[in-house]
Design brief:
Blueprint: E1 13-18, E2 23-26, H1 32-39, E3 57-61, E4 63-65, E5 70-72, H2 82-90, E6 98-99, E7 109-112, E8 122-125, E9 130-134, E10 139-145, H3 157-169, E11 175-176, H4 178-190, E12 194-200, E13 209-215, E14 222-228, E15 232-239, E16 245-252, H5 262-271, H6 275-300, E17 310-317, H7 319-326, E18 346-349, E19 362-365, H8 375-384, E20 393-397, E21 402-407, E22 412-417, E23 438-444, E24 451-455, H9 467-470, E25 478-479, H10 481-493, E26 514-517, E27 520-526, E28 532-534, H11 536-560, E29 567-571, H12 572-575, H13 580-586, E30 597-599, H14 603-613, H15 615-627, E31 629-630, H16 639-646, H17 657-662, H18 675-686, H19 690-693
Parallel strand pairs: 1-7, 11-13, 14-17, 17-19, 20-29, 22-31, 23-25, 29-30
Antiparallel strand pairs: 1-2, 3-6, 3-7, 4-5, 8-9, 10-12, 12-13, 14-15, 15-16, 18-19, 20-21, 21-22, 23-24, 26-27, 27-28
Helix pairs in contact: 5-6, 8-14, 8-15, 10-13, 11-16, 14-15
Length: 695
């Protein structure tokens, strides 16, 4: 690497920074931080070289470094400065570490910059399924000391503050709104002419903007990433400087009282003059409550957190949620051509949305992809990164509406399928949301036809001696989405349900689990109160939902030009709890090598968190979304045929090559054997066309 040279006439000292490998020569007496900045080395600092923040900690390495051609000696660095000993006594400075702003070169040096001292630090957090990315938030803290006013010197507080920003941080011509200017006047005096400013850099070419000021030195700035789902709203509170997630929480979406699914909410907006506004107020109130809960949880865990410290929000959601939170009319999304009011990324303020945060706090919404493929799918793409994959990957976010993305680094396609709320417990007789007491895992003995199951809140199976005690507090209250999928798949594998989805009533002579229920039959999963049944109507509801998803995937595969996919990733709160083997047995997803089928967690929320912490990721996803090809299932002529074939369990025509290697499947009926039930299915399919259910 070319070395940078100092300008003094005396021989300059060589400094080498690791792990970057950047090197250069500088005059004796040069601060290590100044040398790092001159070489473009990634060293953080908030306090402007005053030794207050401790962000610029480095580790001098001593000895012979043949690789670098350097002998680095302790006497090539000045001793501990007063501000270093002060910082050590106040906050602790680990042995062997120095503050780069207080350590000066006197000879050749090798300096290591630890990850936590890097501005653009890389973060890997497996608990949130975050992939490696660089922390580079759009808003940062900048500490400045401002010249005090003098009678003989002209200039107001604001101009002297701007001068200090330009002097210490090379931030020239910053925008300062009037509310911030009002705060600045008091903050300067309370802080004895020192303040910390939150500076938002924005997009390339935009003037930097000061969005908040505090008296004295401030170390922590907060942001919140929120996934606004139609059922639940989940959020993460993060330290924008370090990328640390301080708290996570979720609440039910209060819009449920206006309608269980998206189409019913669009209908509510159509039928009530104040309908859309009422739903907007409800979701914004929920965001306020969630923000307060997150800050309180962080504080209870020992973190310094105040609501006023939250200056950046990132939101994702499906198009209806996206429009309602922004106060846009969702009605056009309810019918063809499903036109979005806004499809690009949106940046607005907390004040514009009526949120109880600092009025100057910014709210960023990821771009939408199409009328039924929203910012939540953009977030999932940002998290799962199919646009970087060599393999052909199907990414599915399973919910009331299933969003699908298919492709690789060469091409991406996206679509939505109208699965309805069955996977979330609605339309199922014993269905409920995933909560303590809900059956989430099911196994059925193919010989005795006896079930065993697990409920949320207990680690034991129902046939284990410890189960009654462990489930006493939760009870056995219903069947959640993952439970009904496993129950129907297991009933099929055990021969209780036919490939056509019919519960075999003749088995009532063999087991008391199969009982007559009107003109059809049901399977008793659990006796007790309540009694949990899998009814014929439950099976039909799941068939309709899974067929819509499978048909959407098949359409994308047709448009992409592949007969099979290499990988399948299941996203979303529901998708992350689905057993992949049972999902394929049911026919929820296309045939694929089960080793390459995986759950990837709440990818939409993870994508929102990445966008919160990484400025570059926002530009990245905005670019990727522009290149995604949108496939509208509602107008595809082959969708209905694919839908009918996918009603069969697992599928009427798919060869199921991969699934057959992993599971012993019942023999398929010969063509025409299930004519009666097939006619019933076709009538049900005709009653659930995409144009009626999709939203």
């Amino acid at each position: 690497m070319t070395e940078t040279r100092g300008t003094a006439s005396a021989p300059d000292a060589l400094i080498v920074f690791t792990p970057s490998g950047r090197r250069g020569r500088f005059p004796a007496g040069t601060a290590v931080l100044d040398a790092a900045r001159a070489l473009g080395v990634d060293v953080d600092s908030v306090c402007g070289t005053r030794g207050i923040c401790g962000r610029c900690q480095v580790v001098p390495e001593f000895g012979e470094f043949a690789k670098h051609g350097v002998t680095s000696s302790p006497d090539h660095l000045t001793g501990l400065a007063v501000k270093e000993t002060t910082y050590r006594s106040r906050k602790g400075l680990a042995e062997g570490r120095r503050l780069a702003c207080a350590a000066y070169m006197t000879g050749d040096l090798v300096i290591d910059v630890p990850a936590e001292s890097q501005v653009h630090r890389q973060v890997v957090r497996k608990g949130l399924d975050l992939r490696r990315f660089v922390v580079d938030p759009v808003v940062r803290l900048r500490y400045v000391e401002v010249e005090q006013p003098e009678l003989a010197v002209a200039g107001g507080d604001l101009e002297r503050f701007r001068t200090a920003l330009a002097r210490d941080w090379q931030i020239a011509d910053a925008v300062v709104a009037l509310p911030v200017a009002r705060d600045l006047q008091k903050a300067l005096r309370d802080g004895r002419w020192s303040v910390t400013a939150a500076v938002r850099e924005g997009a390339d070419g935009e003037r930097p903007e000061v969005v908040a000021v505090w008296p004295g030195f401030k170390e922590r700035l907060l942001g919140i990433a929120i996934d606004i789902g139609s059922t639940t709203i989940a959020g993460h509170l993060a330290d924008l400087g370090t990328g640390e997630v301080l708290a996570s929480a979720g609440v039910m979406n209060p819009q449920i009282r206006f309608g269980e699914d998206l189409m019913s909410r669009v209908s509510y907006a159509m039928l009530h003059d104040d309908g859309a506004a009422a739903m907007t107020r409800a979701v914004r109130d929920a965001l306020d409550g969630l923000a307060g809960s997150l800050v309180a949880a962080a504080g209870a865990a020992g973190a310094e957190a105040e609501t006023d410290d939250v200056l950046e929000l990132v939101l994702v959601g499906n198009p209806v949620m996206h429009h309602l939170v922004l106060g846009l009319d969702p009605v056009p999304l309810g019918s063809a051509p499903f036109a979005l009011a806004v499809d690009g990324a949106v940046t607005t303020t907390a004040a514009d949305l009526g949120l109880a945060l600092r009025p100057t706090a910014r709210v960023y919404l990821l771009p939408c992809i199409a009328g039924h493929v929203g910012a939540d799918t953009a977030g999932a793409i940002l998290s799962d990164r199919p646009h970087e994959s060599d393999a052909v990957r199907l990414l599915v976010d399973v919910g009331t509406n299933a969003e699908l993305v298919l492709g690789n680094k060469h091409r991406l396609l996206a679509a939505s399928s109208p699965t309805g709320p069955a996977f979330e417990g609605a339309q199922v007789s014993a269905g409920q949301r995933a909560a303590p007491g809900a059956v989430e895992r099911v196994r059925i003995d193919p010989v005795t036809l006896e079930p065993r199951f697990k409920v949320i809140g207990s680690s034991h199976w129902s046939d284990e001696p410890a189960f009654p005690a462990s489930a006493r507090t939760t009870g056995i209250t219903g069947i959640c989405g993952s439970g009904i999928i496993e129950a129907i798949a297991e009933l099929y594998l055990a021969g209780v349900i036919s490939a056509d989805g019919v519960i075999d009533g003749s088995l009532a002579a063999r087991t008391p689990r199969v009982i007559a229920n009107g003109r059809t039959f049901s399977y008793v999963l659990s006796e007790g109160t309540p009694r949990l049944l899998v009814t014929q109507e439950d099976v039909r509801a799941i068939q309709l939902a899974k067929a819509a998803l499978h048909a959407g995937a098949q359409l994308l595969m047709d448009h992409f030009g592949v007969a099979a996919v290499d990988e399948i990733h299941l996203a979303g709160a529901f998708g992350s709890h689905i057993d992949t083997r049972h999902a394929m047995v049911l026919g929820l997803i296309p045939d694929c090598d089960l080793a390459h089928v995986a759950s990837v967690g709440n990818a939409a929320g993870t994508g929102a968190l990445i966008a919160l912490l990484s400025r570059a990721s926002r530009a990245e996803i905005e670019d990727v979304v522009r290149r995604v090809e949108k496939i509208e299932t509602a107008v595809e002529p082959s969708f209905q045929a694919y839908f009918v074939d996918a009603l069969a369990i697992p599928h009427k025509t798919s060869p199921l090559t991969n699934l057959a290697k992993a599971v012993s499947l019942p023999a398929r009926p010969a063509p025409g054997d299930a004519a009666g039930p097939t006619r019933t299915r076709r009538r049900a399919a005709a009653a659930a066309t995409p144009s009626e259910t999709q939203a």
